[in-house]
Fold this sequence. Notes:
Elements: E1 2-3, H1 12-17, H2 20-24, E2 30-31, H3 38-49, H4 58-70, H5 75-114, H6 120-128
Antiparallel strand pairs: 1-2
Amino acid sequence: AVVSTQSTGTSTKGMAAMTMDSFADSVDTYVPIESEDFPELARRIMKKLRKYEADEGYHQFVRDLIPELCKEMTSEEIKKISNPMTNLSHEKARLEKEAKKKAGSTKKISLAANKKVVNSSSLLDEYANDDYDDYDDGIDFM
């Protein structure tokens, strides 16, 4: 990996505020030369963008950014990006469902204690003294 010494357009005031360590690890100063350099570029980009995860427009920014980055790729390359995203979505949904289930299970226990338990014989007893058979019209069809 090669670190560029070219000017990034940052004012000297801004550069003075940065420590040398953070400047050396900045995405702004990193120039990937070989394919092996791109994971480092990705790490630096993620480090910079993660600062904004809680901001209101971050999610929309990511939704807009990904398609723009993929515009010039082939459908096969886009599929290689899409598959891990789909897998991540399914995994997140599974974890959210489990968390909801755990949160709901404590409520179910407390609600179950308040329910009136009805045994099956009490339900039958309700209809035992029924003198009227709704289906008996006095005609024997057999």
